[in-house]
Structures are given as C-alpha cells and as structure tokens.
TrEMBL record:
Key words, A-Z: Isoprene biosynthesis, Membrane, Transferase, Transmembrane, Transmembrane helix, Ubiquinone biosynthesis
Name of the molecule in the record: 4-hydroxybenzoate polyprenyltransferase
Transmembrane segments: 48-76, 88-105, 111-128, 159-176
Catalysed reactions, semicolon-separated: all-trans-nonaprenyl diphosphate + 4-hydroxybenzoate = 4-hydroxy-3-(all-trans-nonaprenyl)benzoate + diphosphate; an all-trans-polyprenyl diphosphate + 4-hydroxybenzoate = a 4-hydroxy-3-(all-trans-polyprenyl)benzoate + diphosphate; all-trans-decaprenyl diphosphate + 4-hydroxybenzoate = 4-hydroxy-3-(all-trans-decaprenyl)benzoate + diphosphate
Record organism: Oreotrochilus melanogaster
Record-linked Pfam families: UbiA
Subcellular location: Membrane
Family per record: Belongs to the UbiA prenyltransferase family.
The protein's Enzyme Commission number: 2.5.1.39
GO molecular function term, any single one: 4-hydroxybenzoate polyprenyltransferase activity
Amino acid sequence: VLMRGAGCTINDIWDRDYDRKVTRTANRPLAAGDISTFQSFIFLGGQLSLALCVLLCLNYYSIVLGAASLSLVITYPLMKRITYWPQLVLGLTFNWGALLGWSAVKGSCEWSVCLPLYFAGVMWTLIYDTIYAHQDKKDDIIIGVKSTALRFQEDTKQWLSGFSLAMLLSLCITGVNCNQTFPYYSAVAAIGAHLAHQIYTLDIDKPEDCWKKFTSNRTVGVLLFTGIVFGNL
C-alpha cells in the first residue's frame, strides 16, 4: 500500500503539467493547484519513510530486493514520454510484491514459483491498464503521451486476449510448482471467464465503459486471493 501510494505520488509529480491538459485528471490535487510540489514531496517522504520502516523489519535478502524496486517506482511515470509500452514498465513495478512477499516469508525467492507469478501479474497489468489508457487516448494524442492503447488501437482486444492467455498459463505453472489444489485452479478458471467477458464486452471508444471494465479487475484480485487461501487450507 505504501509503495503503490508512493508510486502514485511520484506519477502525479512527474505528470502535473500533463494532468492539467486532460479532462479526467485536471482535478488531481497537484494539477489543480490545491497543493504545492513542495508539499507533495513532504507527503512522498512520509510514504517512503514508513515503507522503509516496514522493509527494515524483513530479512537482508528482502531488504536488498525491496530497495531494488525503487528505481522502477521513480522512473516508470516517465516511460509514457518515450515508449508506447509504459504499461509494461508499470507491470514490472506494481507486481514486485510477487517476489518480495515470498522472500519476506521464506528468506529468498523460489524462482520456479515467483517468476511465473510475477509474469502473470505483469500480463494482468497490461490488460487493465491498457483498458484504463483508452479513456484518455484523445487527450494523449494531443499532448504527446504514449500508451499501449495508442499502440494497439483497433487490435486491442486481440492483444488483451493474448495477455490473458499468458496470464492464465503462468498462474497454472505457479500452481503446479507450489503444489496448489483444486480451489486454486477453480479460481484461475473463474478469472479466465471473467477476463473473457470483460474483453468481449469492452467498448474501447466509450470512456465510461473502459472505467467500468478497469474497476472490475478488483474481482480478479479477489478471486485469485480467495483461490490461494482456500487452496492452501
């Protein structure tokens, strides 16, 4: 929560001038001038300090692994300026917990489990954040911001379907490599059905539908978490 929050703060600091030009983001505190850049840095310092306190409670392996994510947290908001794949870098950043969570408990990463789980998370981020990016594509073209939504355009659903298949396969590999049980695979199947419906009914030209589909990914998280818990029980 703290590091994702810090990532969002950094994103708003980097993008404050862009956000003013996009209808949906013009009311964000920095963009609207409700808080100053200096105040946002104080808030960011608080988030990072608290996150460091959590990190220092872990083993040395996890401290190094957690610290390694900071470069991604700081730089991923810049990617939309230089590549049409900023969602990929976002995925690499936001899913670091798939590695850190395991090492915090076990003392190191079991790569046969952690890497496919991490990859599945990256694929999931590509799905939901591409849908998210379709909300702003008209404004993004005007201000010169890049995204997978602009890269894929009318082929978006084919790309999202490919990412979904890769995600589901990776989740299955993860399950096999850590001896998961029937509830886990049932959850993965439910996730597949949810993603299929989400992509099939998606209207990339309606921002309100893109928002609805984006937020429905909370269901994916709940399903996977439930499947892991009951699979272990």
